[in-house]
Automatic annotation (TrEMBL):
It comes from the Eukaryota. Residues 51-86 form the EF-hand domain. This is TBC1 domain family member 8B-like. Gene3D superfamilies: EF-hand (1.10.238.10). It comes from Gekko japonicus (Schlegel's Japanese gecko). PROSITE patterns: EF_HAND_2.
């Protein structure tokens, strides 16, 4: 309901500008970061934590691989599936990826007093491991 209200009853909806009916059904409908945040707060099992806004933003950035500010419902459903039904390993991988670039862009601001930390390159390397 939230998605359809914002698409069809809002002026200059970014989702309608990028609507491509030639794509498979689940990939046709896209949501922006604000819509994602609202849906994330309603549906995510992690939305009860104190950092729910940060987690929603980092999750959106992780899913928005082409950096157009939109994700499709297939991507949204897949991340919810991982949160609810994924194995412990998949959930841990998701949480790890949320705390490194491109999702988390504040790696440079970490305090060096926290001991030995991995470099950005090392973090990215570990995030790409299967």
């Amino acid at each position: 309901k939230e998605h359809f209200l914002s698409c069809y009853w809002s002026v200059n909806s970014p989702a309608l500008k990028h609507h491509d009916p030639s794509l498979p059904y689940l990939e046709q409908y896209r949501i922006d970061c604000q819509q994602f945040r609202l849906l994330y707060h309603l549906l995510s099992p992690w939305a009860r934590c104190a950092n729910k806004d940060s987690l929603a933003l980092w999750t959106f950035r992780l899913l928005d691989e082409n950096l157009d500010g939109l994700i499709n419902f297939k991507e949204f459903a897949c991340v919810l599936d991982t949160m609810y039904y994924g194995s412990f390993t998949h959930k841990l991988k998701l949480l790890f990826k949320l705390h490194i670039p491109p999702a988390f862009t504040e790696v440079e601001s970490l305090s060096p007093s926290k001991g030995a930390q991995l470099s950005k390159e090392e973090l990215i390397h570990f995030s790409l491991l299967n």
